[in-house]
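Q: I'm writing up a methods section and want to include an example of the input and output format. Could you take the sequence below and give the corresponding predicted structure tokens, formatted cleanly so I can copy it straight into the document?
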Amino acid sequence: MTGTALSGRVKSLSTGNVHAMATDPARSWWERCNDGVRSMHETGWGESTSVLSREICELLDDVDEQFALTGAHTPEWPNPYKDGPDRAEADYERSTNPEKYLIVVARVQAWTTVLLDRGWAREASPVQWALRPFDSGGADTVLEPTADGAVPLILTTHTPVDSNHPFNISISAGDPAVCLASIPDCACDGCDSGSATLLEEIDTWVLSVVDGSLHVDVAGNYSSVRTSFGTRGSTVQNLDGPTEFTAAPWPANWTARPLASQIRTAHPEPPFPRTVFGTAAREGFRRLLRKPGVAGASQIYWRTDE
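A: Here is the clean output for your methods example:
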């Protein structure tokens, strides 16, 4: 694969609240991320922001190489709104090509192959859950790390219930496990920012688990998740059980990236949309595009790092 690029998008760097413009679609997101960090350092800004290490870049290069095989039949696509018309309300009421989201399954397959081939993990039996994925069912791949203190990675593939629904994957960590992300979060046309956005989101979540740069705190009706890329809070309902953990690196002799600063925010009462396009139509269509949620697993995420 040659273009996991977020062309022209403002990309949040590792502090979670420092931004740099990335404009070269021919370079991988991790190369452009490092370019942005170095540019900040040259101007005396963002001293606490670190580049992605050589070892991390080599790991991501390996995933990209494997993805050329697993994703051979799942083509990428650009952001349809980058140089085109603005999003319209009707865009949030339809999904014209849900089958293209099979690309997210191909990406996690590439990650699974690389992590197993490196000997950092083995496939394991199902884990207990603290906070389940939004989508019910699905096929879990549980990767249990061989390193002490490292936490399992659970990659769940949710198969569409019909041709009008997308493939999507859930990324979870820990035992008991906590769902960190569901990708795509929404498959309506209005929320489509191109495949590169989805691939980068998968990479940063999986990398955070493997790198050991992850802290999770889930209790009551609120959860907090910190990585080196930012901090997120969420409201949750009907937790299976509270849990808190700080991950450790999967590889030996590996130093985890520093976590983003804790962001303190009031616990929201109503669910907040993840973007400014969280209209009623979008929310309604989101629910139509998602498979029925498992009882007791409702969760709403919003970004505090953007």
